[in-house]
User: Which sequence fits this backbone?
């Protein structure tokens, strides 16, 4: 077990006072809070910061921690062993994210595992009350196609369970879930009774799965509608055309009206998610090179069309 | 491993159920609604129900309140800004994929 440098975690010097500790914690808690942060390791960093603060904010716990630090409880290889018969005088109160569950082994070796039990379970006598099991919140990342079509998917999450001593343990659980079609971040999945077990015959909690959709190279989902761009040639845009376009599910024949401009948006009804539509934005592209004959035709076109796309800009300047 | 089929995804949660699940008083939820953090599906307070996504938003709001000490107007602002950031990130990701 590694010795945790709580001062280092909060970016503090050893002689930091209470106000400095609070300030450092608040700043880092905002930075790493899993509901706010986009950092990859947000949740574990937040837990670490919370754990460090839990110890350093409390003068008694801090004194115990400092003592262990000074005692050289760090082994020669940097690993930590609490001194024999070490017993903490302080108690733990949980306040952190996720009910405070899941502080490190290092923390538990100093301040005891009993501390990590959920308040409500502390009596250990479970027959006396009934309590509904906790709801569990899990995240599931899906490809856009998977979210659209649905299908079987394995979800992994930690379930808190109460052992015979009334202490909380976390068990990893895998569940195969049949994802319904058309799920999106706006339609979380609810699985009744798949959360934490109830206490004293209470109902189990539910499992809520929030869906995240990976960016797709062609389609973007906004609400129920899908968006994509479609490249067209200048002549297709000018003359109109009938083009076969891929939707997420299949293909449609899209009629490009004549005189379409770049940025024109066409709607294909019902080809989004759950009755939403597909919007196709036209983007006019030209070939990288032109043959001599094509250039001649362009010159002819330039003479024929008295079109100045900068007319408005020029008018505004003069 | 058991396979689970989602059967009741659309079932909304009553205000009582939300209070029980989040272990808060009704007044706490009423405050969140008054500050526009979430919208109930039904307008009369006695029969307020919330969609599953509104419930998850309430959970998020309560975590921010507890962990960061943010008050209700602050939570409303933070969640709105987070929504906006998320939307911009999505737009950015789709633009990057396309060009």
Assistant:
């Amino acid at each position: 077990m590694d010795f945790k440098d709580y001062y280092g975690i909060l970016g503090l010097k050893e002689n930091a006072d209470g106000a400095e500790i609070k300030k450092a914690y608040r700043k880092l808690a905002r930075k790493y809070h899993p509901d706010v942060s986009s950092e990859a390791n947000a949740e574990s960093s937040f837990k670490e910061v919370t754990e460090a603060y839990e110890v350093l904010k409390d003068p008694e716990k801090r004194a115990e921690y400092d003592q262990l630090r000074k005692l050289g409880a760090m082994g020669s290889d940097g690993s930590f062993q609490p001194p024999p018969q070490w017993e903490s005088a302080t108690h733990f109160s949980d306040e952190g994210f996720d009910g405070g569950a899941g502080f490190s082994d290092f923390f538990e070796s100093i301040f005891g595992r009993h501390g990590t039990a959920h308040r409500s379970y502390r009596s250990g006598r479970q027959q006396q009350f009934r309590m509904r099991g906790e709801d569990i919140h899990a995240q599931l990342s899906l490809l856009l196609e998977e979210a659209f079509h649905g299908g079987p998917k394995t979800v992994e999450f930690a379930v808190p369970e109460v052992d015979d001593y009334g202490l909380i343990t976390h068990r990893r659980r895998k569940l195969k879930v049949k994802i319904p079609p058309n799920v999106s971040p706006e339609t979380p999945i609810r699985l009744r009774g798949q959360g934490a077990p109830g206490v004293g015959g209470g109902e189990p909690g539910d499992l809520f799965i929030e869906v995240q959709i990976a960016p797709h190279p062609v389609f973007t989902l906004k609400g129920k509608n899908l968006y994509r761009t479609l490249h067209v040639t200048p002549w297709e845009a000018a003359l109109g055309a009938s083009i076969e376009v891929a939707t997420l599910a299949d293909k449609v024949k899209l009629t490009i009206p004549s005189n379409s401009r770049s940025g024109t948006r066409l709607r294909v009804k019902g080809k989004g998610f759950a009755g939403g539509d597909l919007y196709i934005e036209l983007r006019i592209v030209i070939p990288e090179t032109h043959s001599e004959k094509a250039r001649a035709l362009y010159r002819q076109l330039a003479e024929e069309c008295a079109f100045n796309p900068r007319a408005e800009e020029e008018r505004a300047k003069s | 491993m058991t396979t689970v089929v989602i059967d009741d995804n659309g079932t909304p949660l009553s205000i009582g159920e939300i209070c029980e699940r989040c272990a808060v008083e009704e007044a706490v939820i009423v405050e969140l609604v008054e500050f526009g953090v979430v919208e109930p599906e039904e307008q009369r307070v006695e029969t307020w129900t919330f969609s599953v996504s509104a419930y998850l938003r309430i959970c998020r709001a309560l975590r921010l309140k507890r962990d960061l000490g943010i008050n209700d107007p602050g939570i409303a602002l933070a969640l709105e800004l987070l929504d906006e950031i998320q939307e911009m990130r999505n737009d950015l990701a789709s633009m990057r994929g396309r060009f």
